[in-house]
């Protein structure tokens, strides 16, 4: 690699046993295919010194041979309700941390905690708890999915708790989050919706269009007001029609909008995913999990807010009515599916899982790519794209399994 990440062959002899490294020792991951913003580079290396990626290997650096593997940036999930048996909406602090840890083990090094619809008093209290975790760096912020969504497209949200997105109500959640509100999903066609989009934009909070029954024209109006994300595009919104194109066409065509996709094989047909990539382009897609408690945990009965969910064969559905209720997806599985089933170029998968959501969060200067000066957040994958190692801020979450 003739490159920004340093020349090969420095420091100590290569080893395949990173667990033997002394704490704080600079590290060189050598010989892998490293996926950079410019594309994959074979026989490359990533140099880690403390919590950051650097461009030059110190003489005392340990070299780990990861030949035959891929090194990609840590995954960034902007829409995630829980995992490991824990809910971000209702769990204790310890339970929330367990859920976060579950996703770390699957390569997600940056995570936004999403809530589901609840009454306003409960959500404001929940915002206070989650904001403390954001202040500690455990999560990247809070996403409020509901209660400001359409009863017609409620999905796995309690209809009795839904309300119109009055700006004063939206402001309550923003204030309760103490500067840690990252995103609010709204049905912007509801009374107060467009004004709330403007309010969110003024406060630096992402306004996301989702769980909506909006027309094409109403969606365009919301985008013009400042909405910049499509919450799980295609799901919980009117289908694309040739006379009534609805929100999907408006969200795909506007270059200001990032579209979320749940790439689990259940929420989307592969043709729908291909349509999104063709029309939005690889730089406007963000893969999300929309995960609920069962992610990384298993089948069984769970609660999603006040609603009971049955998870069978990895698919979560409401017990009452059978609506899909989030997912059990982890982003390592989304990555593997993207490159093996959807046949996306690996650099497009990396963009959707790391770079694009990092940019959306305003954190691309620190995360989302393997460049000197950025956080040492990375994932090691084998030749079959199975996860073999995870590093977050220079610390192994999953020590490389290279044998």
Automatic annotation (TrEMBL):
CDD domains hit by this protein: NagA (cd00854)
Pathway membership: Amino-sugar metabolism; N-acetylneuraminate degradation; D-fructose 6-phosphate from N-acetylneuraminate: step 4/5
Record-annotated Amidohydrolase-related domain positions: 70-397
Cofactor note: Binds 1 divalent metal cation per subunit.
Domain of life per record: Bacteria
Residues that hold Zn(2+) according to the record: 145, 211, 232
Gene3D superfamilies referenced in this protein's UniProt entry, alphabetically: Metal-dependent hydrolases, Urease, subunit C, domain 1
Pfam family for this entry, one: Amidohydro_1
Catalytic activity: N-acetyl-D-glucosamine 6-phosphate + H2O = D-glucosamine 6-phosphate + acetate
Essential cofactor(s): a divalent metal cation
Residues forming the catalytic site: 290
Signal peptide: none
Keywords: Carbohydrate metabolism, Hydrolase, Metal-binding
Binding site for substrate: 156, 235-236, 243, 267, 324-326
EC number(s) on file: 3.5.1.25
Transmembrane regions listed in the UniProt entry: none
Molecular-function GO terms, alphabetical: metal ion binding; N-acetylglucosamine-6-phosphate deacetylase activity
Example of a GO biological process term: N-acetylglucosamine catabolic process
Family statement: Belongs to the metallo-dependent hydrolases superfamily. NagA family.
NCBIfam families xrefs: nagA (TIGR00221)
Protein name: N-acetylglucosamine-6-phosphate deacetylase
Gene assigned in the entry: nagA
